[in-house]
Amino acid sequence: MDFKQAIIENAWGGFSVDYGLLHLQLATPFAVMIVLFIMIYALNKLLFQPVLRTLDNRSDAITKSQQSVIQVSEEVESLKQEFQQKLDAIRTEALHLRNTEHEKGLAERESMILEERQTLENELEKNIAELEGEIKSTKTFFSKLNKELSASISRQLLN
């Protein structure tokens, strides 16, 4: 038995099969499985769990951001509605004030027109009274003139 064969047979103990380049012993698959389990455990602790933790943290951050966006958009919507209500109230108040002032202006204009009309009517009545007085005085003057003229004509005719 050569040195290589002795090491193969005695390395792990137990049953061994030699297929030329492939030396298979019963203990080799168990050793490979143990090494694989150790590697899986080490990779899990060192690589996969931190990556999964990072992905979970990222997912939580995205969820929080989405909730924050939803909350902010709700606040914006409520502020927008509140602003719209205030704007509508101000517009209503402005229209009310405009209409009130317009009505006041119309009433003031009507009162000024009535005052001016009353003043003009008083002036008209005064002028009519003056004209009536002048007409009476003119009639009186013409009647005197007519009498004088009649008397003058009758004197001329009688003379």
UniProtKB/TrEMBL annotation:
Residues 62-141 form a coiled coil. InterPro entries: ATP_synth_b/b'su_bac/chlpt, ATP_synthase_B_chain. GO terms for biological process: proton motive force-driven ATP synthesis. It is found in: Membrane. The chain crosses the membrane at residues 20-43. GO terms for molecular function: proton-transporting ATPase activity, rotational mechanism. The keyword Coiled coil applies. GO terms for cellular component: proton-transporting ATP synthase complex. It is a single-pass membrane protein. Keywords: CF(0), Coiled coil, Hydrogen ion transport, Ion transport, Membrane, Transmembrane, Transmembrane helix, Transport. CDD domains: ATP-synt_Fo_b. F(1)F(0) ATP synthase produces ATP from ADP in the presence of a proton or sodium gradient. F-type ATPases consist of two structural domains, F(1) containing the extramembraneous catalytic core and F(0) containing the membrane proton channel, linked together by a central stalk and a peripheral stalk. During catalysis, ATP synthesis in the catalytic domain of F(1) is coupled via a rotary mechanism of the central stalk subunits to proton translocation. PANTHER family: ATP SYNTHASE SUBUNIT B', CHLOROPLASTIC (PTHR33445). Belongs to the ATPase B chain family. This is ATP synthase YMF19-like N-terminal domain-containing protein. It comes from marine metagenome. The lineage of its organism: unclassified sequences, metagenomes, ecological metagenomes.
